[in-house]
Amino acid sequence: MTLKIKGRKYGQILAVRPTKKRFHGNVVWHCVCDCGRTRLVPGTWLGRWVQSCGKPGCSLRGAHNEPSARSKTVYRLLKKGESPTELARKFGVTRARIYQIRDAMRLKEEVSV
Ligand SMILES: [Zn+2]
Fold first, then answer.
1. How far does the centroid of ligand 1 lie from the alpha carbon of residue 57, in Å?
2. How many of the other CB atoms lie within 10 Å of CB of 52?
């Protein structure tokens, strides 16, 4: 798996090398975006939702941009113990989306880019 990822291009980002960091047991990759910025991305996210560095000003704003105010709110409420089902209803999104937001926000906390 590691070998297959190395040197591959996912959308606009190139997986350069694996880091020693892990996210939910998955290797976190050091990636370089076409715009020149670097980003750390868990291997399982590559080719799924991450296609660019997602930083403001990047030519391609892929999934996982800087967290929106809504994402921050969702995450704060999750940490306070609100259920994903309840939050999904409140924000009019699917529960899968709530989990995505949670994972994205967790990664931001755990991995310093
Ligand atoms: Zn970029």
1. 8
2. 23
DSSP code of 56? Answer: T
Hey, what amino acid is at 107? L
> For the segment 62-106, what is each residue's pLDDT rounded down to a tens digit?
444 556 778 889 999 999 999 999 999 999 999 999 998 888 888
- Both tokens of 92, joined, read 């009019």
Nearest to 67 by CA among 35, 24, 100, 22: 100
Residue 40 near residue 29 (C-beta atoms within 8 A): yes
C-alpha 56 – ligand 1 centre gap (Å)? 8
**Euclidean distance between CA atoms 100 and 78, whole angstroms:** 12
Question: Is the pTM of the predicted complex or chain greater than 0.90?
Answer: no
